[in-house]
Amino acid sequence: MGDVAVIGFSFKLPEGADTSSSLWETLEKGRNLVTDWPASRIIRNAFHSEELAKRNKLRSDGGYFIKDDPGAFDAPFFSVTAAEAASMDPMQRWTLEVSYRAFENGETFPTRNC
């Protein structure tokens, strides 16, 4: 395998850590980015139980959640129709956004023909 040069990067972590400075601050302070279940994502009381014998229940009080709205996406920017955007998994939309930011970070701007 030949040499590889990383010229740009981007990421989206919980608690809004999506810049290099926020990443380093999180690492330096040893922060844990776990949060409670967001009320907008789950009705916690309907699924949570501390009783180990209960099946199909959540036993954790939280997790690692991205603060961004999973439904928010600039479809026209990526030449995606509204129907296509609606059928995409939020992770696909976030991957497009984060990938584009990695190109920006590396000052390598993709053309619309990519």
UniProtKB/TrEMBL annotation:
Keyword Nucleotidyltransferase: no
Any one Gene Ontology BP term: fatty acid biosynthetic process
Cited SUPFAM superfamilies: Thiolase-like
One Gene Ontology molecular-function label: fatty acid synthase activity
Keyword Transport applies: no
Family matches, as InterPro entries: Ketoacyl_synth_N, PKS_Beta-ketoAc_synthase_dom, PKS_NRPS_Biosynth_Enz, Thiolase-like
Sorted UniProt keywords: Phosphopantetheine, Phosphoprotein
Domain Ketosynthase family 3 (KS3): 1-114
Pfam families named in the record: ketoacyl-synt
Protein name: Putative polyketide synthase
Organism the protein comes from: Rosellinia necatrix (White root-rot fungus)
Biological classification of the source: Eukaryota, Fungi, Dikarya, Ascomycota, Pezizomycotina
